Amino acid sequence: MKFFLDTALVDEIKQAASWGILDGITTNPSHVAKSGKGFIEVLKEITDIVPGPVSAEVTATNFDDMMRQAHQLVKVADNIVIKIPMIPEGLKAIKALTEEGTQVNTTLCFNPVQCLLAAKAGATYVSPFIGRLDDIGETGMEGISQLRQIFDNYEFDTQILVASVRNPIHVLDAAVIGADVVTMPFEIFEKLAHHPLTDIGLEKFLQDWEKIPADKRDI
């Protein structure tokens, strides 16, 4: 399973990239606004750091303007993926961009049927937002399980990109189900590497190391 970071903050991206397990980035207008930088400016910085897919979202809601913005964004770098919202005009744009050879990430998906439509239009990725479904009392991960079965049934190449991740359990569940990608905030990315028993064990090892006479610590 691929790990993407959901942010536009360059410092977070640099730190995650240094761990050697970062596969890509997803951004959106909200993330870019938090960065305090221009949209194109921050995308250039991110693509200089991350060689993998970097999703950049259009802000238009009609076909012509989506295509215009997409054509601007793909000029930033070869690894730009265009994020298109799951709306009827978006489906038209997904189809057209895919036929041009541009990779597309369909965002704001909330049920498997929406993802199926995007896959039929040719999307490279579909991004079901599981956390927002959990927030309103639905079980977001149930939709991921259904979607995995649907895509396997019909042999779609479209990748399931689990988004709106709230905790490490979401990441675990996505991996068990067989999602292709999980994108998450930096705080969740960081938590994946931690466990209280790891911290306790490390502290004990270091305490025991101090018990070895200094002249015998030969490393």
Please provide a written account of the structure:
- The structure is a single chain.
- The protein has 219 residues and is α/β, with parallel strands linked by helices.
- It has one domain: Aldolase class I (TIM Barrel, Alpha-Beta Barrel).
- It contains eleven helices and eight strands.
- An eight-stranded parallel beta barrel has the order 1-2-3-4-5-6-7-8, surrounded by six helices.
- The mean pLDDT is 95.
Indicate the topology:
Elements: E1 2-6, H1 10-18, E2 24-26, H2 29-35, H3 39-49, E3 54-57, H4 63-73, E4 80-85, H5 88-99, E5 104-109, H6 112-121, E6 125-128, H7 130-135, H8 140-154, E7 159-162, H9 168-177, E8 181-184, H10 186-191, H11 196-210
Parallel strand pairs: 1-2, 1-8, 2-3, 3-4, 4-5, 5-6, 6-7, 7-8
Helix pairs in contact: 1-3, 4-5, 6-8, 8-9
Key features of this structure:
219 residues; alpha/beta; TIM Barrel; 11 helices; 8 strands; 51% helix
Q: Number of helical runs?
A: 11
Please identify the structural class as seen in this structure. alpha/beta
Number of domains: 1
CATH third-tier fold name: TIM Barrel
Helix content: 40-55%
Number of E-type strands: 8
The coarse overall form would be globular
CATH class category label = Alpha Beta
Order of helices and strands: EHEHHEHEHEHEHHEHEHH
- Low-pLDDT parts are none
Through-space gap between termini: 36 Å
Strand order of the largest sheet: 1-2-3-4-5-6-7-8
Mean pLDDT: 95
**Oligomeric state of this protein:** single chain
What radius of gyration results from the CA coordinates?
A: 20 Å
CATH superfamily: Aldolase class I
Major β-sheet profile? 8 strands, parallel, barrel
CATH architecture descriptor name = Alpha-Beta Barrel
Strand content: 15-25%
